[in-house]
Design a protein that fits this description.
By secondary structure, the chain is mostly helical. The protein contains twelve helices and no strands. Helix 1 crosses helix 9.
């Protein structure tokens, strides 16, 4: 999660389109599969966790701190993800299994039932740094708002493979996250995915 959190933070603070492209390209080059494909899925708006809702997050944090203090904090900060990531107190600060990767966090939350999701999410938040908590909360609530459109992400992929962006767009709807075939082709490790069917 740490690399994904760093990427989101950098993208959020970068106004330039070309600088954002460079950040995405660097991330796609440095981060292994399936994390980079999952990050791409999240940035293009194709990832959702139906069991996690903002009201559930509020309920979780209200179990860990005074609800009035949280309300004041949220009012001051103005962003739910940022507020929760800053005020969250791990249940057991001494016990840590280490910070999960993006793919591990997604695997834990994917398909979680509404009854299991609060415990799973709380367990993940306990294991994460404040920056990574922010990224996870943005991920699960679907509100990244980092100034990256699907078109910009596809352009970064095209730059990775030194191909025309139209080639990426032709393949896009026929591929499934985490886009292993797409990344393999763009890196010259596999032939271009066949979308004739």
């Amino acid at each position: 999660m740490r690399r994904f959190a760093e990427l989101l933070d950098q993208l959020l603070l970068t106004p330039s389109r070309n600088a954002k492209l460079k950040l995405l390209l660097d991330y796609f080059c440095m981060v292994p599969d399936p994390d980079r494909g999952l990050a791409l899925t999240a940035m293009t708006g194709n990832m959702s966790f139906t069991a996690v809702k903002p009201a559930m997050l509020r309920a979780l944090v209200n179990e860990r701190m005074d609800p009035v203090l949280f309300a004041y904090s949220y009012d001051y900060v103005g962003d739910l993800a940022e507020t929760v990531s800053l005020v969250w107190e791990p249940a057991n600060a001494m016990a840590s299994d280490g910070e999960p990767t993006l793919s591990e966090a997604v695997a834990e939350l994917d398909g979680a039932s509404r009854s299991d999701a609060p415990a799973i999410l709380a367990g993940l938040l306990d294991r994460l740094s404040p920056e990574s908590r922010f990224a996870l909360i943005k991920l699960v609530t679907g509100g990244l708002r980092i100034g990256v459109s699907a078109r910009l992400a596809k352009q970064a992929l095209a730059d990775l493979g030194k191909v025309d962006v139209h080639e990426v767009e032709e393949l896009w709807h026929g591929l499934e996250p985490p886009y292993l075939d797409l990344f393999a082709w763009l890196e010259g490790k596999a032939p271009k995915p066949d979308m004739t069917a």
